């Protein structure tokens, strides 16, 4: 009778097992994968890892995805007719760079960013510059994040001198960009509250003064007809209402002129009485 072999691997836990950017479960799972890999790949299923670590298969799937995104493992699948026959997980040896190497890498990257400028001056490699870069590496968490930030804000730095000022804390790119974004937000709010600001074609008309009296005016002829007791049709006489008093027929008789004067006095008296009545009722 064949001896039953133990399917569970034995791993040794050391200080190097645990990674700063990985959770406890991810670190142990990576160690198990490393033990099963043996240079040929790990073919274990999620069910195996779940039973080994006494956690759910869903949690295992999520942790394997995290290890893959972090660059610790690669994953490939053998398929047949769209069905997965086998999954292969392989370790990716990650090179750990020393702090000095990371600082030199940042300096070289900054120099390459502005090397084509006519007034290019290499970033100084003095001790204070290196110390400032070390602080930024700690602040951003990794060399890659720091490099990404430098590239994203290249136009704001303008030169290696701008980067040096930023490293010393004398140039606040984040604050400057924040102020610009706030300014844009305020302009946007103004546009939203007044849609006429950006489009001159829909500006509200302001030709008519606020105090302009738009009440239709009666022509002298119409006033005289009313004084005589005759009816007038305002709709038919719109053009006459816009005619200047200077266009009165020069052939008007002397008696008609007297009637016009009397009519003017009559309407002025009526206006005065209406105004007095209005003032008394306020």
UniProtKB/TrEMBL annotation:
Residues 177-192, 207-238 have a biased composition (Basic and acidic residues). Residues 177-263 are annotated as: Disordered. InterPro entries: WH-like_DNA-bd_sf (IPR036388), WH_DNA-bd_sf (IPR036390). Transmembrane segments: none annotated. Signal peptide: none annotated. It comes from the Bacteria. Residues 239-263 have a biased composition (Polar residues). This is Uncharacterized protein. It comes from Lactobacillus gasseri 224-1. The lineage of its organism: Bacteria, Bacillati, Bacillota, Bacilli, Lactobacillales.
